[in-house]
Amino acid sequence: MSELQPEWVEQVRDVLETLNQGVIITDACHHIVFANSGFQEMVGWKTENYMGKSAMDFFPAEDVKRLLDQVAVGQSKGQNRYEFYLPTASGERLPVVITAKELEDPDGHIFAIVTFTDIAEQKNAEMDLRRANLLLEARERAIEEDLLLAAGVQQSLAPKSLAWVNASVETYYQAARTIGGDYGLVSPGDDYLTLLVCDVSGHGIGSALVANRIYTETISHIEAGSTLTPMLQHLNRFVIQNLGTFVMYFTMAAARLSRDGRSLEFSAAGHPPAMILRRGQSTQFLDSASTILGCFNDAVSHDSAVTIPVEAGDRIMLYTDGFTENFDARGEMLGVEGLAEIAQEACNLPLALMKQRILDRVAAWRNGPAADDMSLILVEIV
Question: Distance between CA atoms of 170 and 165, rounded to whole angstroms?
């Protein structure tokens, strides 16, 4: 036994040597009178380097003050456990959790048993996690910036309200997320006004990319003067042949209003019925004659388009299911009939106010924020 060690240390030596932690015993002057092998392995010093010396001698003066301040704060809070570090023989700082407990021996001398738990692996893991989080945050910011740019581009493609030869048009588009899989299109020509809404399955980036690709293909066919049925047939084949591996389908409703405002050609595939609204009359529904697109080669039949007579004062509404598939607090869906009732009640208002009334009434029905993309085209024949 060292002369520095009180006799009672021998009684606990074996127990202290079995611990996985480093343990030292200091006297009232902070001099080390015992250190177990775990402590020696932690610091890498030989016994003679620290035995009998003050534990504070191994820390820089500024760190001694920090350590003593931390101990004082802990004591004021009734805590004897805190994080610090152990200086090692190699000059490194080993992060540890320090636990200190004072005791009085049979002779009335005060000692402290100080335990050091190595938390280097934990600290390294925390540092790795912080670095990973910083990288993730940077990546998230970059994605958000890209999404905002994409949203701006997609919003620029949304149809705008306009006045044509014999019609006024009001439009609305809102993605459920930053970007979405809906798009609408209003294309005035010399002989007819083309109206179209499309809904790609799913939400988010994938749907938006597919929707934008279909949008580009649709524009090229409208500019080439393609009629509605051949256009839908081509878009169906195009998606199956070029985008089929993404397992996405889409629905579409397309209409063409003649220049004289007396006839409306209509064709739709798997889409909620379009509506013709007349004051004081029941809503006329225009149903899809074809099934969903992007899945079946024969989804669009050759006689899928119909021509409907229309007249001044008639209003035409194309929309995506983001308007109908809304649920109230009781879990009841608005549905096509519910939307038709809202639209019919609003059709005596000016067209812009009618659009706003529909948006307000749908939002009032819905319990919570919109869960799906929403596209709307309203046309009044004048």
Answer: 15
